[in-house]
Structure formats: structure tokens, C-alpha cells
Queue: 2 jobs
Job 1
Amino acid sequence: MRILYDSKLPQYKTPFGTLTPGQVCSVHIHIPCAVQATSVTLLLKYEDGKTGAQDIHLTKQAVKGAYEVWGGDFSIPHTGLYFYHYYIDTPSGCFRLFKQGDDTNMEAGDLWQVSCVPADFHTPDWAKGATIYQIFPDRFYKSGDCDLTGKLTPYTVHRSWGEEVEWRPTEDGKVLNNDFYGGNFKGITEKLDYIASLGVNLIYLNPISKSFSSHRYDTGDYKTPDPMLGTEEDFAELCRQAHKRGIRVILDGVYSHTGSNSPYFNREGQFDSVGAYNSTESPYSSWFTFYNWPDSYNSWWNFDTLPTVNKMDPAFINYIIEDEDSVVAHWLKLGADGFRLDVADELPDEFIQLLRKRIKGINPEALLLGEVWEDASTKIAYGRRRTYFTAGELDSVMNYPFRTAIIDYVRGRDSGKGLKETVMAIVENYPAEVVLCNMNLLGTHDTPRILTAVVDEFNGTREEMAKRHLSRHQYDIAYDRLLMASFLQYTLPGSPSLYYGDEAGLEGGKDPFNRRTYPWGYENMEFIDHFKRLGRLRREHPAFRYGDIHFFQAGDRHLGFTRSYQGKTYRVYCNRDADPWEIPAGKLVAGFHLQIVAPDWLTLAPRGYCITEDE
């Protein structure tokens, strides 16, 4: 017999998840009577292990069968990240109780976590449970031609839309990423009806500012769109037409570095400005750190084309955030609805707080989303614990933990228990308002295509990856796995994010092969129909956008959970086992690989999944 305590279940801790200052939290721990506990204490400490320590002495409140129930209340006066464990006295000695996965463990294991977040923190209602479509602008769709006057050189334009991306390094081993296909704002505008048919509420655009490279993370001019994409008016028209369809548009905010080929640095001399590389008297000199001017300077991950910016430099903050026509103000006034912050862990919390204050001042409903690859509630970067949530900074983050857990499950590397633990850890550790806005992704511009990722380890040289494509056998396996992976993505809490072309069956390994052009005219229509159905599912059943989650099965390659909202409960089942799985029948909402075998039972075949509604 063991001690029972699970912070995720209401019989042990209420309220679930994060707290706000002064909010009362009740805990109940079930201790076997045979332990003969004489006192039970909850030891709560701020993340530094010293500040704000509380010893909460619990009282014996009931006896239930073979267990004594000890309980008590506490509250936290200030925002911050806190941890706790239990200390139990008995006639024969004392011991500490720690967390170990879904169980408890004496004298070893992790601490339980509880975050205290601002009471006035809210995320935009329109973004809660939204369906996101991520577009790499050069590779989505080209409509007409753009005036390339001012396009940074050198660059090449592919002769045909379907050509392979350029992956070969130059003679000195550099990968320039300066090959273009001509995808543009007008092309995206022309395809808005298609995007809307997928149930999309939000478009996230990779960088659009004037830049040398096709990925445009080497910003050349923060306030000017790249000529190949079109004009400011073309962008404004894209936003207007998207808004008419109920679709918002957010931009990539790249504020940790600029391009060396920019008016701010101007190493290549293509701008009529005095950049920091050109003179120590440059108005931009304070933006950058030189070790030995001009050729030795701090750069992002040592790429000399990406000089790192001093984010808290007053001149830089004014230019990006504070000026009347600052960079963020400029794009919001043109119609953008928010920003995704590139490498958010390299932006100081103070910078993000200033940025949030300004964009919310311009548009209270603007969205601020951060690129974070780990559990953002406990993220430590450059020796500092990040306060994304405890300081109310970010509305949403890129939910890479979900991606890893889903892929592990559909590939058979996890029985289901790991996925449950990952999902519930995020749901517990993040503010509820953030959970609903989480960018639940399967593919991005930084990951292999999901169709490839579910079957292939995509290791090897660029030359090997360029030649490698899925075999017919691999494709058949990937087909089933992608259907299930996306089904989970769209039924778990958060905002599912579809990387352009994943819905059309694009495959590809690491960059640049995950950035191929959308295969217009060669789409896998079965995939597209599948994603349209998933989009309708979330539109027609609000529980999948806003509902609570509870797992009732996670193991033996079976997954089962409920989503509940406003009196309606839906049961979600996934079967990764080699054998059929018999499940209780209900009102069938959606399904794949299943059959009705009796009035009260369904059989879910291997690789099958379904949703039933409780009646």
C-alpha cells in the first residue's frame, strides 16, 4: 500500500494548475493508516529554494478505508515559480515525500511545481483554440510578378516552381540560402479561400522584411517588405482580405540579431547608410558588440552574417518598440495582428515585457507568441529562469513537447503513458489562458516534414537527404501515422498549427528540404480532405477548442481521453496496438478503422481512432 497524491486530480489538489496571488489552494494527501503519521507538513519554497518559504501543517481530516486523509490550505502572496514536497512524521521516524512521474516516492524524485501568475493576465479570445496555418512566404504561391528594384544581391530565381531547393554549399563551404521561387503576398491573398477551407483562423508568416536570404531571418530592413514579396499595400491588402474571412495574420519578430547586409550594420555596403561596421560613430554602433572593430563582433551562433543585437540598448528599444513609428507599431498599423518572437529565450524578459506593453497598447487583442522548445514554465536560458508566464509576458508558445510526444506514440516508441504525462504536465504548468493558445505543431520551418518524421530518422549529409524520398512502403506507413498524429494534434488542448504543404503530402528532411514549394496540382487530396474534416471538427464542436481534458486510458499502446465543455463530453480513442480494441459505443462523431460489432460496443482496428459523444 502506498501514499496517494496526484496534483493533477481534484481529490488531491484544487484548483488545478497555476494559482494567482492570494488564491487559496487546498491539498489532500492519502496516507495508509499503517504508517501511523503523527504530523504532515507541506514545505513550499520559491524557486531559489530560500525566498518565501512556507511550512503548511496539514490536519487529519478523515479516514477512508485503509487511508487517513490529511489536508490543508495555503496561498502565495507574490507571483513566481514555486516548488513543494511533503514531510511526514511517524512514531518510528520521519521521511520526505517527492514526486515521481504519476506516483509518489519517499526520499527521492522531483518536487511538485506550482506557478503563481498575474491575476489580470489574459490572452485574446479569438486566439483560444484557433487553427493556425504557417507559411514560408517564398515557397507558398506566386501570383504575378513583383518589382525587384532594391532586392539585395546576389540572388537566383528558380526557373520552375517544382525545382529542388538549392542545397549545395559554395566552394568555400557556405550555404547562402539565396535561391528564390517568388512566392508573394498576392499569392497568399489569392489562396485565402483555400486556407479558410482548412478551418484556419490564424496565419503565421515567417519573416517578410527585406533580406538577403530566402528565409529572411537575416533582417535587411525591419520596416520594408522584401521586394520579391510585394509592397506595403500588398501586405495591407492581404490582411484586409484575411480579416474579411475571419483570419488573423501574425508576423515573425526577429529581434535577437539583424543581417550583416542591413542599414544597421552594412558590412556589404548595399545601403546608403553609415552602419556599425562602417564607422564607430554610426547611429547604430550601440546596437552591436565588437571585440575588435570592425571584423570581430558578437554574432548569433557564430554566423558572421547575423550580428547579435544588444536587446536592452535604448536606441534599439526605441527603434523596435517605443518610437511612434517603431517596427512593431509600423506593422500593426498595416494590419498585422501580433508577432511570433524568434528565439524568445535570447530576448531578455524585460525586452519582452516592454514589447507586450506596446503592442497591447496599440491593439489589446494582438497576440504575442514565443519560440520556446521546452516546457516554457521552467525554462532557464543563459543562467536565468525565464518569467514568460509568472510575469505575464507571452500569450502562447510553440508547443514542441507535444510534437515529440505525439511522434513517439505514433512511431511506437511510447505506449501512451509518456504522451499522457507530457500533455498533463503542460496543461498543469501553463496558465489556462496560455494552454488554449498553445501553438500545437507537428512541422515547422525548423523541423523535418511530419510525413518524413513519422518514419525516417533523416540523418545524413545534405547530398544524401536530397536524394532520399520515402519508398512506397514507407509512404503507406507514414500515411496512417500522419492521420493519427494530426487527429491527436487537433483533439488535444491548444491551437493546432499546420505547416504549409503538410496537408498536401509534402515530405522532406532537415533544412532546406523542409522548405520545398507547395505542390500545387500534385496535392494528396486524401490528406487535404482529412485536414478539412479536422478543421470542421473544431469549428462544430467547441469542446475541442475550449474544453478540459481528462485521460482515462494511457498505456498498452491505447490512448483514451475526454474533452468536456458546457455540459458536453467527447471521448477520444486511439489504438496503436497490433490487435483490435473494443470500446464502449456512443454517438459517433468521427472515426477511422473502426466497426460497430454490437449495439453497445465498437471495435477499433489497429491504427484506428474515433470520437464518441456522451449522450
Job 2
Amino acid sequence: MTAPPADVITSARTDAALAVRGLHVDFDGPAGPVPAVRGVDLTLRRGEVLGLVGESGSGKSTVALAAMGLLPRTARVRGSVLAGGTEVLGAGEKALSRLRGRRIAMVFQDPLSALTPVHRVGDQIAEAVRTHQDTGRDQARRRAVELLDLVGIPDPERRARAYPHEFSGGMRQRAMIAMAVANAPDVILADEPTTALDVTVQAQILDVLRTAQRETGAALLLVSHDLGVIAGMADRVAVMYAGRVVESAPADELFAAPRMPYTIGLLGAVPRPDTDGRPLTPVPGSPPDLRLLTGGCPFAPRCPLADEACAADEPALAGTGGHVAACVKTPGPEPYPVPEPLPPARAADAARDELPPVLRVQGLAKTFPVLKGGVFRRRVGSVYAVDGVDLDIRKGETLGLVGESGSGKSTALMEILRLAAPEAGEIELLGRPVAALTRREAHALRGSVQIVFQDPMASLDPRMPVGEIVAEPLRAQGRGRAAVAGRVPELLELVGLEAGHAGRFPHEFSGGQRQRIGIARALAVEPELLVLDEPVSALDVSVQAGVLNLLQRLKHELRLAYLFVSHDLAVVRHVADRVSVMYLGRTVETGPVGEVFARPRHPYTQALLSAVPVPDPARERARERILLAGDPPSPVVRDEGCRFRGRCVLYAGLGSAERSRCEGLRPGARESGAGHVVACHFA
């Protein structure tokens, strides 16, 4: 398209707050243009929420950046983006500066990168106000304080004088939302605004977005990979695949009756906190390389319903009643194949007390020094990272360990994996106290517990072929060359890879395949306990489903015990037999996963579970939420009372006598039936 003069934005008649027509985006590459968006049409009306979903690389964020005119110079853009009737594409920097913040505003995924670190938060918001409004400096600062108060930041006047690094992640995102709504824009673009946040903070941010949209009347384009978030927020949903919209419908209709097999697969791959461990429906394969598309449906190589008709031409969006899908089989009579459920876990065949213990942790504590001084550093305090953790895992059992960031989950894992005497408390592995182990005994026992890390690429040596990576633990245990050569192909096939993949390097695999390699490496020495530290948090939901199904199958076949650490409670509900909840270094509730999720006793657990989004619009919007106030207290202060009371809804309603008990007495763990233990005076 022909660009207008650099300082001019052209106008056109439209009733939409945002209208995207025929948007194409290519990026310059060494071998020529690389397509990212291929003919996207979107319409967003004032006051409406449109959810944009799809796997990584589908083009969601590129669409949002194009709508803001923020694509890099290496991007070649065609089509039209009208924001309130004014053309964005081709506009110059001066014109875009007048448009951004006034007509259209954006909330980015990483607020720390979006905020300038050397300027106070209030000054940055005031600058956004003064850019578009004829107002004085003092009035703009007062407006910044009002906006911080609007988005729920406590003591906004003091916080306005703080720098971004002094804010928590959730508070930084609130500040970004305050900046976005400062000039009452017509459109708010939110690009994965809750991805890096805990579920409790995510609930707060979504509530703030709702408030901000209600106060401004703006339209909201919400880009997210979390279908539960989309179910609770969106009026309409557009699903993207291979740079195109492949299905669009009102949210209720799309979740109840999806038509495109890709959408069906995405919804089937999502673990739900309100169901048991049914097999998930992974979407096989990987998204296509858009440079190599030759015609036909781009999803056909991954589609279990594809036939010859799908290879002829790329289907266009078609349908009635506002529900359109790009599929020649829509609506088709063929059911989408669902994996067969596994037989009941062996751990359930016997009473839990009769199963051999694998890991027992009692009263675990770990502190870190707070040092002060330059040349001569001295200890001036302690960080109480872990301050009373209890865990119990039996053979063939999965224990889910959950809690907010900073609750001490990772520190507890490291203490367990050290196989050394803890600072305080007891750790027993396979019935043996680790404090009594000699160095040789600890080395021999180390093969019994292995770990799978969060980031599969960071945990695999990029210079080593996969076969060598998998073989490394075997060689560390002194296995012979012939035994190693025979074991590596078995392990690769066990996790769903081919034996011929042993000669490839990690960068040649997808994210899900790399995580399977990490699992194969952990299984090499036949451990009794597998520690899984956020093993699927870096994966798309479609890939995540395949890894979770694999873990369930391996647990059943090998009778493994898992310690599964995750911030995603829906995933924990899917994989775990029991769950243990941590808050600020302490275990506050433990029990069978079905019992804890159905009848949580501790106020913190209740708040966590109420914040977990459900991919069902009707249920998600009808649920009651418990929004936690503020952030957890500093772990530097060791409070002898209940450490949760400052955020506890139950504590707020107690009388003075009951409150003094919470303030001065640490709650002890007490049984509430069926192995359900809770540490709360008034649970």
C-alpha cells in the first residue's frame, strides 16, 4: 500500500474501534521474506473483548504490534489497520506518537522491560498524560496517583515516587495498565499480560483490566495462550494458526462447539482444575514453516481427520451466525480421536500406608545470610527461605508441590537433592536418613533421585548429540560401553522418540521433544523418584499435553514416584495423587488432590484455587473469586504467628481474641480426615 506523508494519518469511515483488513506481515530473512501473518481480518467494537489465541509462532503478537505500528524496520506490512477510523499502517512517527496512548494503547508481556528503570513510576505515567493532554506537571502527577489508585496499588502517593525495580511483578503490570488507560483510549491491546505472573496475581491483573475497560469503555484485544483466561474475559474469540485466523466465534459458542480440528485439539489439550486425570488430547507434530507452504490446509499434516480434500486448496473462513472456520469438513460427523485412558494407577491398588516410602521430609528449614559491608562483610540478618516443610511420597505416587513465587519450593527441592544433612528437620530417601549417609553412600543413592528441569534447552548441552546427553548419567554410574550403547535407543523409544535421533543435536528438536530428551536422561539410571521442576511451563498447551500424557504413562509402566513442582494448579490436578501447598516457606495444607481441590481448608489454598481459570465461559464467569490483598511479607522477618494473616480474608473477620492467637502462635498441622492436613487455627 502507498504510505501517506510521514506526519499524517488518513481517516476512513468505520463503526469499529479497531478494524484489521487483509493484514500481511513478512520479515526479512537471509533466504528472503519470512511470512508471519497471512491475510488477517479482525473487527473490534467499542466495549468488546476479543480473545486472540494460538500456539507460539502463530502470529498473535505480530498482529498486536502491527496495530500499534511497533513492528521493526525489517517487517514488510500490507493491508489496513484502522483505529477509530484512522489508518495506522504507513503513518509516520509523529502521527503514530499522537495516536499511541490516545486512540490505542498497549499492555506488554514484560512490564519491567516496558518501564524505564531510571525514572519514577509516577513520573512515567504523568508523562503519558502530558503527552496527550494540555495539563501542568503538578496536575499530571496528581492524575498519576489517581490512576495508580484506580488499578489497586496500595498507598499510591508513596508508590508513585518509587522506581520500577521497587515494585513486584504484579504491581509493575498494574502500573502499565494505569499508563495504558491514562488518556481513555478507544482500544487497549494486552499482549500476554499475565504470562509471567502467579495465579493469584494473575487474578488481580485480570480484575484490574476489567475495571480499566469498564472505566474507559475501551475495546480490549487480549492475546493469550491461556484458554481459561480467554474463557473468563472474552466476548468473542479468534483462533490463529500458521499466520491466519482459522476460527472465530462468540466465546460461549466456540468453547461449547468448536468446528476447526485445530481448535478442538487446543481445547482437548488443556488440563482442567475441575476434572480428574483424564488423558489429554495432544496436537501431534509442530507448526509448519510458513516459507514452505505449497497449498492445501496448513494444519493437514497434524490433523487426525485430514484426507485428500484437505490437500487441494487452503480453505477460507466460512460459516453462519458469526461462527466461521477454515476447514472443508466443518461441521463434520467424524469424532476427534481421544487417547485411551490408562488403567488405574498401581498405587491405588493398595492402601497408601502399605506402599513403600520413597521420600519423607519433616520440619525442613533453610536460611540464607543477609550481609552488609564492603570489604568486611558481616551478617545482619537471615532470609527464612524454608521454615517448616513436610512432604511424604510413596512408591508409584505423585505429590504436587504448589505455591506462589518465593514460597520456597525450589529451595526445598535443592535441599532434598543435596543428599546431605539439612540445616534443620529430617529428610529420608527410600527409608534412609540422608544426614547419616557417608559420601560413598550418598553417591550410590544419588541415582535413585533424578530431576527434570523447567527449560529443556538450557538443561541440555548444545554441543553434545542427544545420544551422548542421555548416556552421560549411565557413564557417571560406571556402566560399560556395551550396556550404554544398548540402553540409549531403549530410552529414546520409551519417551516417544526414534533411536535414529541419537546423533542429532538439541537445537534440531522442538521444545516438547527436548523435554522428552530431558526425561529420557533422567530415567537412564532407573530412579525411584523423579523430581519435576515446572517441566511443562515453557511449552505450548498442545505440546504440554503430550508431555503430561507421557509422564502419566511412564509412572504407570515403571511405577515411578514423582515430586511435581508447578505454579499451574490445573496441571497439578491432572497429574497428582496428592498435593502439598506452601506459603512463605511453610507447608499450610496437604491431602489427596481430589479432596483438597474439592474442599480446600486453608484460606490460602481457597484463594489459590479460586484464581485458577477454567476453560468454560459459563462456569468461569459465575465463579466466586478470593482476591488476595498485597504481596507476601518479607522472608527476612521470622514471624512466630501465622505468616498469611496479613492477606487472609478469614483473619479480617475475626475478633480481637482470635486475632491475637493468629498473631502470636504459629498454626500447627492438624488432621481433618482422610489424610487431609491443614495448618490453620480456624480452618
